[in-house]
Amino acid sequence: MKQQSNTRNLRGRFSLLLLLGMFVAIFGILIYTAITENVTTSEIPVPEYTRLFNVEALTNMKLVVTTKSKSREVTSTYTYKGKFNVYVFKIRLKNDNSLNRIINYKNESSYISMNAVYTELPSFNFDMEERSVGPGPVSKLYFKYSGDQIQSIAKNDSLQCYYFKFFTFSINYDDSPYDIVAQTQRGYIPASVIFKKKDKFIYGIIMTKAEAGEAMAPDLLYKMINK
After folding, report:
1. How would you classify the pairing of strands 141-155 and 103-107?
2. Which ranges in the chain belong to alpha helices (H)?
3. How far, in Å, CA of 159 to CA of 155, rounded?
4. Could you report the per-residue pLDDT of 107-151, keeping only the tens digit for each?
5. How far apart are CA 58 and CA 67, in angstroms?
6. 159: which strand partners?
7. What's the count of helices (H) and strands (E) in the chain, helices before strands?
């Protein structure tokens, strides 16, 4: 009995040390990523992002932050009428294909990958995170979604817009881990996403609520952009 007790104690200590080692490793990765990515923030608008929106939308939009890093294309976060968060990013493409050949939609749950480091994005009543290390040029984009409904607002070779109520959703490229992933524990959250292709870039826009009880019209984001 004593030997069995000692064995259990050793196993417990080993598990504790293993868990501690994992925390140290993750903390080390976070520090290394922060140093090597050279992340900078500002309140300077990105002209190519503001040109995505029409004049009426821009009069009601406020820039929160613009973020630059070593491996990721610049990103910008806005609020719209103080009621919605708008996140804008872009991805460089390997080939000049149409969106219909690049984007793949799947009805599938998404959860944060344990083999990547993530940073928080603006959200309300849910968690949304972005992979700290950005992708290089990509050939495929995967949008995974699980929730109550998804509605196509526009779909053609250069622009696609969807409105949905999600439990989880994610975006990833080729065979890489999730680049953007969101999940909620408080029921379904309304959101809208736009993918717009121009030259060899895809511009992504994600809109979510910033206030409780605020309704989101399915075509709200679509009406805000320059077609």
Report:
1. parallel
2. 2-37, 47-50, 55-58, 99-102, 220-224
3. 6
4. 889 877 767 788 888 888 899 999 988 888 999 999 999 998 899
5. 19
6. 196
7. 5, 12
